[in-house]
Structures are given as C-alpha cells and as structure tokens.
Amino acid sequence: MSEGRAGNGEAAPQGVVSSLPQRKTAQSGADDAPRRLLLPPPYDQHYHADGDVLDEAIRLAPEAGAGTLVWRREGGLLTFAVVLEPEKPLRAARLAFFAGMAALGDALAAHCLPDKPLRFAFPDTVIFDAARLGGARFVTPEGCGEDEVPDWMVFAVELIGDRDHLPHPGVFPDSTSLAEEEFEESELIVESFASYLMLYFDRWTHQGFDAVIKPYLDRLDPKLEPGARAIADGDLIERLPDGETRRVGLLEGLAACAWRDAKGPRL
Question: Using CA atoms, how far apart are residues 25 and 174, in angstroms rounded to an integer?
Fold first, then answer.
C-alpha cells in the first residue's frame, strides 16, 4: 500500500460498528483457530503461525509488495504488520508511521469499553487506562538514504492479548491486556486497523498531513493545552506548562522501543 495511493473515499471503515447486539470479546485461548480476516481489496493477508510478524513482513516485502498484511493471534499476543510502498524520499515517507499510529488508535477505540482512556506515549507506546497495552515498530530498508525513496516500509503492532500465563497478573500493574479490558475479538481490531489506515492515507492526500497528525497528538500523554505540541520532520516539539520547549526525536524513540523487550511487549 502506498501512502500516496491508499484510498478513494471516506466511507465508514470496515468492521467498525457503533453498537453490537452482543460483544465478542478478545479470547485468551490460543487453541481457537483464527478466522480469515475480512479486508478491503488492497490487502493480501498472511497468517504467520510462528515467529515475529515483523520479520515475516520484511521477508515478504520485496516480492509481495504494498498491502501485504501479516498477522498472528497466539501465545497471549495479537501481532500484525503491513507493508507500505512509499512514493516520497525516506525523510518524508517516514511520516507514514503516524498514519499507522492514528489508525491503530481509532481501531482500538472502536472495539473497547468507552469509559476508559486510550493514550499514546511518544512515539510508539499504546496505553489503555494508564497501563501499557503494547506498541508499534517501524522498519525501512537498511542503507536507504534520507533523500532516497525506500523500496518498502513496514509498520508493525504488538498488543498483549492476555496475561493468562502469569500466576498473579496484579503483580504487573503497569501492563494490561485485550482480554482483561474486554476488547472485542482480535480479528475485528486488525480489520478496523486496515480500513482506518486506508482512510488516513486518503485524508493525508486530500486534506494534508494535519488530518493525520492531529488525532495522534490528541492521544499523547500527558495531556497539554491545545497547540502545545507539533511534529517537525517526525520529531515531537512540546511547549511545557513551565514555558520550556523541548524536542524529542522520532528515530531515537523508535530505536529505543521502550514498550518492548526481547520477548515482546513488556509486562
């Protein structure tokens, strides 16, 4: 999927329903076979039963190309990754990361209980009701220069599906899971993300980058007064309550991947 050729309208994203007769909440049992996703035509789905979906998306990217979506629901995790094919040099194309985050925020908000806050920590961490739910990663080809157009980019998400393997989940109050928070089934989240991602690329094309970055900035923690945050070349510019202005680097934040350790999302 190209960030310049992603959609042709603002129809209601597939899989997003304002009210349902019965909530299908995220299931913790890894033995339940996932159903096939219902995705718009640009996507080509691949269920990756073992290993890191990001690695698999990177492997597929050169040949399979834009719209390749790799996903897995197993082992207490919901993970998915999508391949993008930019038309701009890396310096500008990298901003597609924020379209992915905005789409992720809207997809999660569409399938959770409405009385708990869904927030981000810059640049890549997802926080639900003040607890860490997971985050996103973003990869471009090694050696691609800032002024070169990348052959591909991959936006990948990892969410804690359940914490059933923990004898006492309460010992880890800084994290939570889709199951504990009564999110609707995992497949609906991935389907909604795919549709919202198309929608945000379409808005970017027709309304400008502000239509992408505003929803992202609105979810950032801690809350600041309107207009106190902006994105410049991917970096976060903040005007703090004491009047100080600071700049937080996107590349440094993505490299740190503070929400994750070698095993996946931190508990």
Answer: 22
> Both ends of the chain: CA-CA distance in Å?
32
**For residues 14 and 255, what is the distance between their CA atoms, to the nearest angstrom?**
32
Structure tokens at 125: 């961490």
Distances, alpha carbon 92 to alpha carbons 164, 179, 233, 234, in Å: 41, 37, 7, 8
Architecture of domain 44-259: 2-Layer Sandwich (3.30)
Give pLDDT, residue 16: 35
Give the side-chain half-sphere CA count within 13 A for 58. 12
Preceding peptide of 123 cis, ω within 30°: yes
The whole-angstrom separation of Cα 91 and Cα 180 is: 39
Domain ranges in the chain are 44-259
Decide if 194 contacts 71 (C-beta within 8 A). Answer: no
pTM of the model: 0.88
Q: What strands, in cross-sheet order, belong to the sheet with 68-74?
A: 44-47, 68-74, 77-84, 153-160, 131-139, 125-128, 118-121
Q: What are phi and psi of 190, to 5 degrees?
A: -65, -45
Cβ count near 256 (within 10 Å) = 12
Mean pLDDT for all residues in the chain: 89
